[in-house]
Automatic annotation (TrEMBL):
Keyword ATP-binding among UniProt keywords: yes
UniProt KW keywords: ATP-binding, Cytoplasm, DNA damage, DNA repair, DNA replication, DNA-binding, Nucleotide-binding, SOS response
Gene name of the encoded protein: recF
Annotated protein name in UniProt: DNA replication and repair protein RecF
InterPro entries reported in the protein's UniProt record: DNA-binding_RecF, DNA-binding_RecF_CS, P-loop_NTPase, RecF/RecN/SMC_N, RecF_2
Every RecF/RecN/SMC N-terminal domain range: 3-363
UniProt entry tagged with the keyword Signal: no
Similarity comment text for this entry: Belongs to the RecF family.
Subcellular location: Cytoplasm
UniProt lineage: Bacteria, Bacillati, Actinomycetota, Actinomycetes, Micrococcales
HAMAP family xref list: RecF
Entry binding sites for ATP: 30-37
Function: The RecF protein is involved in DNA metabolism; it is required for DNA replication and normal SOS inducibility. RecF binds preferentially to single-stranded, linear DNA. It also seems to bind ATP.
Length: 407
């Protein structure tokens, strides 16, 4: 799969942009703050329905505009699709495929990309919610049906929390207890499906992660992913700040199915939930422990090791998608990545991504990027796309830098 043309209207700092893209590597280069990251962010949104930089869609609409449009022409094995999303202020977003309306949540079915950026260091060092979001986005990319499962789970969780808060403030009545049982069953049904899907995803990522880590770090530090499941006894709130936990807390010897374990756990914590007015267990409170050499990466890994782990996780995701997808390789996006690497690791990364059908790269300094990834280069200046041609090396510009583009 590759994008042959990207069109933006009122997206971030682009009033209008038309960007032809080639197979293989495409490099967007320019000073910081010109809009390089905005281009690749638009394609990341098209495949995940989220931004790697902000939580709100509104921030991606150009100031003063009421909507933004991202339109990409996709090609795979001679077949072309026109995939579009319109982000709106105050009303629901809209999507089209070949000019026919589709549900926005169905877009990942038509376009797949994997984006790595400096912000992804938070996958290793950040809060559990960041890791949950990453795994859930990958679930949706592999099977868009999970977008509906996640939305349904969030609705049930919200309704159940409302009931628990009401019971806490007014005292639990018999009628409320029956209603809580009904919400429990819905929570168990949807939550168990999510838990099992995440565990399966962790297992499938293991081998690609080990290979990817070795390819970008040059060493085998035995990267490992361990699900911490509240329905199986893990108390994520009690995990030490350095990421360590009691290994026994994440296992369950009863042999129960996830649904049965979930029901049992809900019964155990019901009094606590009524006291706090909050659902205390379920996939919304789970985590994934990242390990290197048998130690939690959070708190023990160096900056370079953490960076390599996060990058390897994204490359492993891309490898998993390319193995499973009928649409071929995902578009691989590297946002200001090479500035963080030394020459040896730049070459290793270039080798690791060389086999993908299309790779999009942003850089503030042209010379940061290995020469074999610069064949198709476009300069970006103040929200304007300069046609491919002779590139003025931004390294010669005193304002150029190597930090992440934040246009």
């Amino acid at each position: 799969m590759r994008v042959t043309h990207l069109s933006l209207t009122d997206f971030r700092n682009y009033r209008h942009a038309e960007v032809p893209l080639a197979a293989g590597a495409n490099l967007f280069v320019g000073r910081n703050g010109q809009g390089k990251t905005n281009l690749v962010e638009s394609l990341g949104y098209l495949s995940t329905l989220g931004s790697h930089r902000v939580s709100s869609d509104q921030a991606m609409i150009r100031q003063g505009a009421e909507s933004a449009i991202v339109r990409a022409r996709i090609q795979h094995e001679g077949r072309e699709l026109l995939v579009e999303v319109q982000l709106n202020r105050g009303t629901a977003n809209r999507a089209q495929v070949n000019r026919s309306a589709v549900k926005t949540r169905e877009l990942p079915r038509y376009f797949s990309s994997v984006l790595f950026a400096p912000e992804d260091l938070a996958l290793v060092r950040g809060e559990p919610s960041i890791r949950r979001r990453f795994f859930d986005q990958l679930l949706v990319q592999r099977n868009p049906r999970f977008s509906g499962v996640l939305a349904d789970y969030e609705r049930v969780l919200k309704q159940r929390n409302t009931l628990l808060k009401s019971a806490r403030s007014s005292g639990l009545r018999e009628s409320q207890l029956g209603t809580l049982d009904i919400w429990d069953e819905r929570l168990v049904a949807l939550g168990s499906e999510l838990v099992d899907a995440r565990v399966d995803l962790v297992q499938r990522l293991t081998d690609p992660l080990i290979s990817a880590y070795r390819s970008v770090a040059g060493d085998d530090h035995h990267p490992k992913l361990i699900p911490l499941l509240t329905v199986r006894g893990a108390d994520v709130d009690d995990i030490d700040a350095d990421g360590s936990t009691d290994a026994g807390a994440v296992t369950d010897s009863t042999g129960f199915s996830t649904a049965d374990a979930f029901r049992q756990a809900l019964a155990t914590v019901r009094r606590k939930e009524l006291d706090r007015g909050l659902t205390l267990i379920g996939p919304h409170r789970d985590d994934i422990l990242f390990e290197l050499n048998g130690l939690p990466a959070k708190g023990y890994a160096s900056h370079g090791e953490s960076w390599s782990f996060a990058l390897a996780l994204k490359l492993a995701s891309a490898e998993l998608l390319r193995r499973e997808s009928v649409t071929g390789d995902p578009v691989l996006i590297l946002d200001d990545v090479f500035a963080e690497l030394d020459q040896a690791r730049r070459r290793m990364l270039a080798t690791a991504v060389a086999g993908y059908e299309q790779v999009l790269i942003t850089a503030a300094v042209f010379d940061d990027v290995p020469a074999d990834l610069t064949a198709h280069t476009v300069r970006i200046e103040a929200g304007a796309v300069v046609e491919p041609g002779p590139v003025v090396d931004p390294a010669a510009d005193p304002e150029a830098g190597s930090e992440a583009d934040r246009a």
